[in-house]
Fold these 2 entries.
Entry 1:
Amino acid sequence: MPITLSDEAAQVALGEALGHALDGRGRVHLLGDLGAGKTTLARGVLRAHGHAGAVKSPTYTLVEPYELGEHRIYHFDLYRLGDPEELEFLGARDMLGEQALSLIEWPSRGAGWLPVPDLEIHLTTVESGRTARATACTARGQAVLAAVPADLRDISSHKENEC
């Protein structure tokens, strides 16, 4: 069952909770229409790791790297990606490794090239703000959702076959 996020602060708080549970590793696909709050959620994840600056969607650069303490976090926005093979030229294979955290907006643009995510977060715009629903796609994703605070657990649906 999705949870309702009434405002931007609630979206950032969800991102922070997920960021802490992810502990600097994993692959997260952020899904939703334009303006659904994918970058806002990514800002929360980055804040959980100590980033205090602005977070903009890397629409034109395709990826924004962050070195935060011992963690490497890559924020991808594939909206303008012409062909999934372009990710190879960006060096994305290394960025998507097990020792980094990758947040990927518009992952459908990289279909067939991107590895299976640990989590898919589906954001939807509704009258009262946004709704969020998470799907664990791997055992690691299930462990991450289990670590999310109880008041946010309604976002979790452990259906690996949906990814």
Note: The first helix runs from residue 8 to 22.
Entry 2:
Amino acid sequence: MFSFMNNNKEEMQLDENNMPKHVAIIMDGNGRWATKRALPRKAGHRAGAKTLENISQAAIDLGIEHLTVYAFSTENWKRSDEEIKGIMDLLREYLKNYIERAKKDNVRVHIIGDIRRLDEDIQQQIIELERLTRDKSGMSLHIALNYGGRDELLRAIRKLSQDVVENKYQPDEIGEKEIEQYLDTKGIPDPELLIRTSGEERISNFLLWQIAYSELCFSEKLWPDFTEYDLKEAIYQYQNRERRFGGRK
């Protein structure tokens, strides 16, 4: 059992035999965190990147096998040029640091999303990072970049349709398992738990196929303020829910 004190100073216990294998997080609230402190939005994104490092380590300590985080969506291109530039510059820095850390860390890093819209140097950093960590045996960190659930499904449908045209599949042979082979998350178990920070209670086009039966947990905290204790509290909620998958017990 993992014991911890929640934000109300109450002792809580997690069942280490009932840990979610895969946790997904919508990291929301960086900009509002910065605005509340009269700081530029870039400062909020930098603080959010630090929180991701802390939460990744906490997930490793808890034995979570997969952590998927929503870093930049297909809709985020609608933001100001200044904010997008700040995010991309921070992404370059983050990837560079991770490439250095990959030499000693036992974390497999995997990017989901359509990276073709990202600058060429960022694409090359992603390719290098995935290559360096491909054979790591520890937690898998999946980072969603230029990702949208509808975009993922659209790309999957196009690839699958082409294979049907080339007679690799007959239409009546296509089921859920076949579709999953064309998703960005091929080979990755669906998340049992989805967390969203900042008080918003919506999915925002994230992992639309994969979270069909995920437990949802919404935190009032802005992402830079989210701590390992908040992660544990979300897992505690997960462990105290009855998961029926549409059936009855």
Note: The mean pLDDT is 94.
